[in-house]
Amino acid sequence: MLSAPSDVLHDDNRLKLEIPARPDWVVVARLAVAAGVNRLALSSEQLDDVKLLTAEACALCVHQARPGETLTIVCELGTDRIVLSVRIERTLEKRDDQPQSEPDTDALETSEFIIRSIVDEADISYDPISGPSCKITKFLVG
Q: Where do the structural domains in the chain lie, given as residue ranges?
């Protein structure tokens, strides 16, 4: 019997969630991702890391959202890793709008620091035209 390499991520291990890009919805993303990764039988510390990463990645994007935008969260589960992508796909008509609030630079830097201190790979973009995005990979050890 052939099996896929451990680094292959399958569609049946993929969670996609779209929520309003507002701070009060971040908890929904955090809980949904935690429920999805819970099937991997992670340690409580690993599960806490995933919840924290989800909240911080969402916060990075939400702080730069325009009114009415949607936050897309995709969590891909592999046997040896979790890949979390969070982004706002900015439409042409939203590109000239102002953010819901002025981004708190200290909060953004803190969120980015927390993410980078927990994950193995992080690609964080603050593109004002296409919208903010964050793609992080956490390898599962033990």
A: 11-139
